[in-house]
## 1
Amino acid sequence: MTGATGFVGAETLEQALADGHHVTALTRRAQPPRAQLKWVPGSLEDAAALDTLVRDSDVVIHIAGVVNAPDRTGFEAGNVRGTIAVVDAMRKRGIRRLIHVSSLAAREPDLSDYGWSKALAERQVKASGLDWTIVRPPAIYGPGDREMLELFRMAKRGLMLLPPGGRLSVIAVSDLSRLLLRLAGERDMSLTQTYEVDDGVAGGWDHRDFGAAIGRAIGRSVRTVATPGWLLTLAARMDRMVRGRQAKLTLDRVNYFCHPDWVAATGRHAPRQLWMPQVSSEDGLKATVDAYRAKGWL
């Protein structure tokens, strides 16, 4: 498993160990030992570490990736070259089964550098000759996530600045992880398939409705304001001036946020006999708020 120390990877790792699987996981930093878990020191740039990671595997779940970078080069390094390195390591060792975590952003490669990099990574997977399955998650929420944390903090203040009109799908991290592990144990039904997944809300969420749902999870009424693209662009430039390469709101993200359709396509849903979401977003958002509060983040 790559990305096991990140938000999605950590949840997937916990579920895998709870299910009795033996896991080998890549890590940049020293980690405490655990039963049934072998940590491999290294990164996606380290060919020797990747060889150690995959050599005794039945399946590789590739979760690691870059969601925020200051330029296209950063996205290419983390999402494209990292994926190529995983594929190469698997082919050298004769490991066939690959579960690749992509993003809905791959549908719109011309919209953002992030989407471009995820689409190009998918192309590498599809050309690999491996027994692959690609999963494109929408916005992922859950305990431990910091990418959506600011939305919850705005809701706590009673005012949420949201992108212009549009709709989005979301998914609880626990449901996504459950799917990844289901795919790891299943091959024939999902072979060479690309799945777009969500929380089961048909047609996705209107931005305002999702903001109101976060407000309910917080326990207060929230006023939502659709922020025009020009204002988000200005805010991104200011964030870059203040935080430099560490800026969270980048121009690349503004392009992504302002796209009106980030809804998982019904025709690409995973077969119901393979997987269905179990966590309603109302319950999942409330659990996320509780976890944020317990950690002192909210």
## 2
Amino acid sequence: MAEHRQTLPPLEWIRVFEAAARLGSFTAAGHELGLTQAAVSQRIRHLELRLGAQLFNRQARGVSLSTPGEAWLPHVQAAFAQLGHSAANLFESPRRKIAIAASSSVIELWIVPRLLPIARRLPHVQLAFETIQRLPDYERSDADFEIRFGEGHWPGRDARRLFPEELAPVASPALARDIADDWRALPRIATSGPRSGWRDWSNAMGEPPPPAPLLRFDTFAQALAAAEAGAGVLLASLALCQAAIDARRLLRLADRSLRMEGGYWITWALNRPEFAERRTLVECLVNPQPIEAGKGARA
């Protein structure tokens, strides 16, 4: 064991290597760690001499990982992640406040129905929500978690998928009764944002171009409320409107659905310290079936 401690390079050198490899720059690593570029370069050089391998290729316009560096990086990051997780579980004080940034529709339609199990499992935590209106708003957010739409890959962030995005036309039962032969003659509701729209639906289903929607909303929650009120047919996110379908406030008008490549993910920054409540909160939010009011486990 003593021999192992002697051959292991100083942890600070390894930490500098991980930052430089992740950021692709000695200068950026220095900014993150509070070191000068020269200090980062010196520590990397000491580490390379200790290991007997070149970890970076030095170039006129920057650095890139060498083959040995690329091979070692995932092991280093896994070791740091394990250290952070064990420290959080064993020593860190419970988090009293957790901030989540998301669109108003995701907050209202996905997170709020899951607040009961979160409160039961994390009774000491205050949840603070930040509404994201546009994609650039994420750059100004300092939340612990950000719920994003995409394919699950963002630089410097880890992610778990909340739900895939699957769309289908829905309408209120009262409006559906007005259908003579085909729901396509009914007025349509559209939403702004990353979801596919009515033209994408028609193209995927091999149908003629759709008529222009008579109503357009900038949030899905508003569009869903309009559909429930009988204002038109909505191309709806099935995950976000499942409760309305189950309660018969809305009816699906087609068996087929349009599956998008992207979905909604809960994400967090890799360079932030881990805390014990993270895993519990994420588990509650990725659960496809929220606990209904008045139900749930009893002691």
## 3
Amino acid sequence: MYEVEKAGKPYLFRYRFNNDRTLDEIENSYVYFANRELLNDPIDSSPDLIKFIKERSSLESFYRFIKEQFKSEKHKQYIEENFSVDKLENLISNAIPKYINSRGVACFSMIPYINMPLWTSYANNHKGICLQFNMEYDKAFFDGIRIVKYFKELNNIEFTPLIDEYKVMEVFFRKDINWSYEKELRLLKKN
């Protein structure tokens, strides 16, 4: 990627508003992680992009898997008496949006200083600042950072428990092609 070569590894850039939150981040040496609802694209990381595949045999397998995690027969019996495949299906359906909304998102760019739309959108119409980060200084903090992929059409992500246990996370790293000028990388943290 030309942008990475131009910026030079291991640098990331974060365009920020000139406000008290940004000043607090700098003064107290932290990175703000926004809730999904605060991202500027309402479709970005939406739980509506997750298609929960409610295949009965898969749910039954997942139910058995959960039950077998308990070693004592007493606990297994309790699961059988108080929990069902249908309840598990309902639990998962309700858990997907909660899981997504429990993550904070920090957005970075590979593009240094020169991207006018980034200055406009994320740095208070060119009045804010651009912070430069060197990932080498805190490898543990930046562990898990991933590049966002851009698509002409954002299809639903099919999710089947037990088979695709981490597939829900993909929703954070996919955006419409119209945002590709951002050359974005993202870091997630549990709120």
